[in-house]
């Protein structure tokens, strides 16, 4: 209720759109992503010229920013320490630009997906209070970890802007090179302002908003698979007729359909809808997942190397936040994708646990077997159709970062 009240005061537009979703134990998590993305006017439902203008400014600043970083990489990054610093900046910048571009060019697909979640997905209370509480508990866990990631990232970025002020010589938030003396006024102030805009205004809202939108979509799909499993378990029980009537109204199924098949028809059609939604998620986020794996590997490796070679406690704290933000980001991506894959296969178990053997209609049994067969095919979140996001991927990336760290340490020696 407190969160709802704050949003109604601070963001009345967002509150109006999501007024019906605050009471849902899963759908409300989309608001956590809408706030930061709306801050940079890249929310899929946003229309108008302002969105195009801000995206154009982002691209322009990104081009200038990357040019200075790449030039720094080939001109003044003459040791491993400066090399890792420049690569870290490039990696963060790549996340901002590519994720903003994916949000901008996938506007229609994401808008359609969000509308399906808001209006077509079953409410979390559809199968009773117990399953609703389980969904709420899981959504709170995802929300909490997301807030931790957001806090670490925001703290790191603010420190990145502030720390150069504490130095005795003029420094910039990012290790950059320009073909002129940038230490003189007003060029120093202008470049510092550009770096601060990119770091403070764009990086956190775009990256965190994009990530939490993915977490929210997956968390809602997980909730729907849990509800579907619970509905299938009612097959053949005394609750079947009541559940059938309740769900038939939600999905628009004809209530006069033969009794033995109504609940099954509801579940089959809804199962196919969830499969289609998951395919849409893969299509929209697949390219971004490749970036995420590479970016996480580079970010974790660079931060580990810089921490191991740093003696200043303030700098160690600063770099540890960078490490923690990247590690938690990768962990949530892999974990929530793994959970989605797991719950997609639970449909077959739910069908097997139902009282299907009490049904005399052979067509109903055949249809149930088809559900079981289809659900045994895991719905996996892919990175460009090559890598699968799960706990195995997380361990593999962490191992790869250690290999990179060892390589950099060897070169430095």
From TrEMBL:
Keyword Membrane: yes
TM region positions: 53-76, 147-165, 384-408
UniProt keyword terms in alphabetical order: Cell membrane, Membrane, Olfaction, Receptor, Sensory transduction, Transducer, Transmembrane, Transmembrane helix
GO cellular component: plasma membrane
UniProt record, GO biological process: signal transduction
Location(s) in or outside the cell: Cell membrane
Topology in membrane: Multi-pass membrane protein
Any one GO MF annotation of this record: olfactory receptor activity
Keyword check for Glycosyltransferase: no
InterPro entries listed in its UniProt record: 7tm6_olfct_rcpt (IPR004117)
Protein name, as recorded: Odorant receptor
Organism: Protaetia brevitarsis
Gene name for this UniProt entry: OR13
